[in-house]
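fyi for ur records
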Amino acid sequence: MSKTSTVSRYLLGILYLGSAIAGILGKVPPPEPEAAQAFMMVLASSGLIYLVKIVELTSAIALLSGFFVPAALFLLAPVTCIILWFHLALDISGAPIGILLTTLWILTAFSYKDVFRTFLQPKPTT
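which gave:
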């Protein structure tokens, strides 16, 4: 594993750990645009935000510990995509963090490309 991958794994873990803790404690400031606020209200009122924060927390711990890193990346893939989409489509002021998370995810996942390659096979090999 390269130094780039290790550094990106730790940075990704730290960012998601901070986000999860802030979200669970309710310390995330509301976004400015009205559409972004509506989206966040749906997440909050449905309770789905807590599931997302638990996925972020457990994945961050896995990334920082080095155990189950491919599983953590697998769980964080849709979360990372939604964060990127949210900031590009609804709250452009946060786009740098979405781009940063996506870049760190890609850099980390590249080291585990052999693990992910099995998901891209049309039929399981026996």
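Helices lie at 3-24, 34-46, 48-65, 69-89, 95-110, 113-117. thats all i got for now
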